[in-house]
Automatic annotation (TrEMBL):
The lineage of its organism: Bacteria, Pseudomonadati, Pseudomonadota, Betaproteobacteria, Burkholderiales. The keyword Nucleus does not apply. SUPFAM superfamilies: Periplasmic binding protein-like II. Pfam families: TctC. This is Tripartite tricarboxylate transporter substrate binding protein BugD. InterPro entries: BUG (IPR005064), Bug_dom1 (IPR042100). Belongs to the UPF0065 (bug) family. Keywords: Signal. Residues 1-23 form the signal peptide. It comes from the Bacteria. The keyword Hydrolase does not apply. Transmembrane segments: none annotated.
Length: 329
């Protein structure tokens, strides 16, 4: 046995050197870094990913591209990254779905807590509760009265099972104690189009999707889901859900960056360092502010804190989803 170990030792040393060289040379010259987005192009997560890709190019010294792999509540794209080569050239940008997939997706083909390396959070995206332009209510108090008068008749849209709007809608119904008819769409765009056209009554969606519609007065806005009011000009006059009377109602859609399990530690550090630079990029911050998103500046940009936060979110959403009995597949 000792002889075998002695024979294998040089090979192990060579492998270690080669492994270290691979990490030191990251990113590989002329090899693009791909950020997989587990949702359709044009959606809020896709927009964040494309802004982030641009901001990461300089600190990483590489071409960064976006690949959309939508389906099954975001699990198809996530699985694509979980099974990818762990050389740091395939990354995942995912939202709150990292905390909801374990409950939403039956027979999920990976483990959120152990099949990924957590690279740091990117932003927080508030949600807004909006209604069709001809809805009789003009503020949240009037909306509550209208909801009570129209039980069993209210259509609440969402961008599909597992989407941010679906999650917010579930929490809103539970907080109100009123069951509404869920109307799922294949994306936020069609849902907002039907809301503007009056085919559905309400929608709770990310500011990345709703701010321009509110600003253009194409929809009625009733509240935001953050602990404090927002400073975005089009949203600054909207009350929080808590101010409006729904205690402890807070929904923020976060985005984080991930790599396949086993990605070398020093490659992870390079990506995390580049992410920290990207999050301070003035152009990136301006774009995120225009979307109503808040760039992360707290300790959640650190890898361990990012993972801890997602675990806390999983504990928050799991009972909500189990009570609703919904699945993304």
């Amino acid at each position: 046995m000792n002889t075998l170990i002695k024979k294998l030792a040089p090979l192990a040393a060579i492998a270690a050197v080669a492994f270290g060289a691979q990490a030191a040379d990251y990113p590989v010259k002329d090899k693009p870094i791909t950020i997989v987005v587990p949702f359709s192009a044009g959606g809020p997560t896709d927009r964040v990913a494309r802004d982030l890709a641009e901001a990461l190019r300089k600190p990483l010294g590489a071409t960064v591209v976006v690949d959309n792999a939508a389906g099954a509540g975001g699990s198809i794209g996530a699985n694509k990254v979980a099974k990818a080569n762990n050389d740091g050239h395939t990354l995942l940008l995912h939202h709150i779905g990292m905390a909801t997939m374990p409950t939403l997706v039956r027979n999920i083909p990976f483990k959120v807590d152990s099949d990924f390396e957590y690279l740091g959070m990117v932003n927080d995206v508030p949600m807004t509760l909006i209604g069709r332009p001809n809805l009789p209510a003009n503020n949240f108090k009037e909306l509550v009265g209208w909801i009570q008068q129209n039980k069993g008749k209210i259509n609440l849209g969402n961008a599909g099972v597992g989407s941010a709007s679906h999650l917010c809608g579930l929490l809103f119904q539970q907080a109100m104690g009123v069951e509404m008819t869920a109307v799922p769409y294949k994306g936020t765009g069609p849902a907002i189009t039907d809301l503007i056209g009056g085919q559905i009554d309400l929608l709770c969606d990310q500011t990345t999707n709703t701010t321009s519609q509110i600003e253009g007065k194409k929809v009625k806005a009733f509240a935001v889901t953050t602990p404090k009011r927002l400073t975005t000009p089009a949203l600054k006059d909207l009350p929080t859900m808590e101010e409006a009377g729904l205690k402890d109602f807070q929904v923020t859609i976060f985005h984080g960056l991930y790599a396949p399990k086993g990605t070398p530690a020093d490659v992870q550090k390079k990506i995390n360092d580049a992410l920290k630079v990207a999050l301070k990029d003035p152009d990136f911050n301006k774009k995120q502010e225009g979307l109503g998103a808040v760039v992360v500046t707290d300790r959640r940009v650190e890898q361990a804190e990012h993972k801890k936060f997602v675990a806390q979110e999983l504990d928050k959403w799991s009972p909500v989803l189990k009570k609703a009995g919904v699945y993304a597949d």
